Amino acid sequence: MIATGLSSRSEANAAADRKALLPPAPPREAYRVAGEVIGERLLEGRELTEHPRAALRRRLTWALAPAALLLAALAVLAYVAAWISNWLWLLGLLGLPVAAAAAASAFRSLGHGLSDHHLFTRYGTAVRRTVALQRDAVIGWNVTQSPFQRRAHIVTLAATTAAGAGVQGP
Q1: Burial 55-87 (b: 16+ CB within 10 A, else e)
Q2: Which of 2, 27, 91, 106 is disulfide-compatible with 19, CB 3.0–4.6 A?
C-alpha cells in the first residue's frame, strides 16, 4: 500500500521507499494493517481480477529476449575467441529458465480490483506490491496501446491522481 504526496528525499535513508505504508511483511499481516488504515477490508490477492494470457506472453518476451541475446552473444564469443572455452555459452542456457520463472512469477502477481471506495492493483516479482487508491482521488485515466498490444487486443490503463507521481498503474 502506498501513501501519495510524501517527499521522496530523505537524507537519513535515501534508499527507503517513502511511499510505502508498511515494510515488506507477510501478506496476511499486510492486508490486515492496510485494511485498518483505509477503513475497509482490503481485497486480498485471490479476490483480484487476473490479467489475460497476453500479459503472460508479454512478460515472457520481456524476460526471455535479453536472456536469449546474452546466450547468442556468449555463443559467438566462444566461437570467435579461441582463449574462451567453448562451454561458456552453456552458462547462458542457465539464464533462460531463470528468466522464464521470473516472468511467470511476475504474471501471477498481476491483478486489479475495485471495492466501494478503492481501486486496487498488484504487481511485482520478488516483492509483491499492492496499491490501494481512493476512487475519489482518480482525476483521469491514461490509456496507452502499443502496436503489439493492439494486435493482442490489450491496453495499458493507468489511473491519474493529483498527488505524488501523478499516475498509478501496474
Answers
A1: bbebbbeebbeebeebbeebbeebeeeeeeeee
A2: 2
Q: Global pTM?
A: 0.71
Residues contacting 152, CB < 8 A, separation 6+ = 54, 57, 58
**Residue range of the domain that includes 137:** 27-47+111-168
- Cell numbers placing 158: 493507468
Q: Cell numbers 483521469 label which residue?
A: 140
pLDDT digits (tens, 9 = 90+) for 97-127: 999 999 999 999 898 888 888 888 888 888 8
Within this chain, do residues 116 and 163 fall inside the same structural domain, yes or no?
yes
DSSP string, 41-53: PPPPGGGSBPPPH
The number of domains in the chain is: 2
